[in-house]
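Recap slide: GtrA-like protein, sequence and predicted structure.
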Amino acid sequence: MARRSIPHRGLRDAHPFVRYAAAAAICVATNLAAQEAVVQAAPGAPLMVSIVIGTGVGFLVKHVIDKTWTFREPYITPAAEARRITLSGLFSVLTTVIFWGFELGFYVIWGTDAAKYTGAVLGLGIGYVVKYMLDRRMVFREATV
């Protein structure tokens, strides 16, 4: 008897939240790598310089991944794209407050880089869950998923 093949349901076909989580993991790594690159390149730079640069890099990467892969949002018009980027940016500011609060709070309490990065990962995780809910409902409304 021939074996019947089961269609592969990889990450590409996963629920948008699963893809969002995968994209978030990529962006957390990108954010922290950018922060560490700043620390290594300019060890005397203030802490906020590395945090701001890491956050900016993470936002750009995350928006592109979310639009093209997570939500599979079609391009409609320049005005619609501007609206999406603006809303996504505003929601990112809100969730960045959560992220930075955890990152800086852990650093202030424990005073180590390990604590800072632990707080960053926790804050980013919480922030990404909140941002997924906002993005799904308000930003990527024409998504094809």
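The chain has four helices and no strands.
The helical segments are 16-41, 47-70, 78-110, 113-139.
(End of recap.)
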